[in-house]
Amino acid sequence: MFDEADPILGRVRTLALAFPDAAEKVSHGRPAFFTTKVFAYYGGSVKVDGVYRQHDQSVMVLVDPEERAALLTEERCFVPAYLGPSGWVGVDLTDDTSWDEVGELLDASYRLTAGARRIARLDARQP
Description:
With about 130 residues, the protein is of the alpha+beta class. The chain has one domain: Aspartate Aminotransferase, domain 1 (Alpha-Beta Complex). About 35% of the residues lie in helices and about 30% in strands. It is built from four helices and six strands, in the order αββββαββαα. It has helices at about 5-15, 65-70, 100-115, 115-125, and strands spanning about 25, 30-35, 40-50, 50-60, 75-80, 90. Strands 1-2-3-4-6-5 form a six-stranded antiparallel sheet. Strand 2 and strand 3 form a beta hairpin.
């Protein structure tokens, strides 16, 4: 369900694996980035009229409800199938994507899932 040579996946992978203790596994046919819990998925889908529409070059993250509401006002963002009801949001990625923003979204999702010790390690290495 994904192309290992996809340069956008490569950029997401570099950002996601930079977090303390982050690792990657394939879950449901897609790359998932996790510590104890998953904090990001690469690729997702939306169910429309009983049909799944793929968002192959996207990142799915868990963010706080206010940030999620703001993101969902943008055309590039979507409520992913299965994970959407749990607060996850999908963001379509292109060559023109703001990678600083993707890093911030990954950071927010990591902080909601990683646990206090890992977050303390993350904070200790930031200027």
